[in-house]
Specification:
alpha+beta; disordered C terminus; Alpha-D-Glucose-1,6-Bisphosphate, Chain A, domain 4; 7-stranded antiparallel sheet
């Protein structure tokens, strides 16, 4: 499956629509070529960057029946990232649901209620509905960006770690394609970095008081 997000970005990056790419490759590619051979063909024949030769090789490979990394039968396309952050689970829970915390992972400047069934919409168009709420442990919800055609499933889990720290684990599944998977991997990695930075800043402020 190829998302509208990928189709938009490949057209912007290469000047050629996805449907045109498939027509070009259907007529020029030996289906027995390996991923690396296909990538080399795209890079050399069409003067593509390393990144876009890789992405077109991955997405066209799926058209040939190849299963890329990150795709499972039950959860579809999924990604998981985690980071160990200063603060115990209870403190992290309250921080993530505070206006400052929400702005980091939802972008929400409105009230947010951690109750099953609560629906939310952020100022930048992220929408979702809470399906599981386990205080100080887990949030599970649907999560969809404005430009997506369908919602994903997002889970945030707080795992106690050593020295009063907490591992924040983010798992997202049922994504539209592996291109969006990579976008979300980068997004959540950066989000966890910003959450950690905010928590460390809190420790510095408290130490100075």
């Amino acid at each position: 499956m190829v998302s509208s997000v990928f189709k938009r970005d490949v057209k912007e990056a290469t000047g050629i629509a996805w449907e045109e790419w498939t027509a070009k490759l259907d007529g020029s590619v030996d289906v027995c070529r390996s991923h690396d051979q296909l990538k080399h063909h795209l890079r050399e024949s069409f003067r593509l960057s390393e990144e876009w030769a890789e992405w077109l090789a991955v997405m066209y490979g799926q058209r040939l029946g190849r299963i890329p990394v990150g795709v499972t039968k039950d959860a579809g396309v999924q990604i998981g990232v985690r980071r160990t952050i200063p603060g115990d689970p209870e403190w992290l829970w309250h921080f993530l649901l505070s206006p400052q915390g929400l702005s980091l992972w939802i972008g929400n400047d409105a009230a947010f209620t951690a109750e099953k069934g609560f629906t939310f919409r952020s100022r930048n168009g992220v929408t979702g509905k809470l399906t599981v709420v386990q205080p100080f442990k887990k949030l599970r919800m649907t999560w969809q960006r404005l430009e997506w055609e369908k919602a994903s499933r997002l889970q945030i889990t707080l795992l106690p770690a050593k020295n009063g720290k907490t591992t924040v684990a983010i798992h997202q599944e049922m994504l539209e394609d592996v291109y969006i998977r990579e976008l979300m991997r980068r997004h959540w990695s950066e989000t966890l970095h910003r959450i950690e930075a905010a928590c460390r800043q809190r420790d510095i402020v408290h130490a100075d008081q």
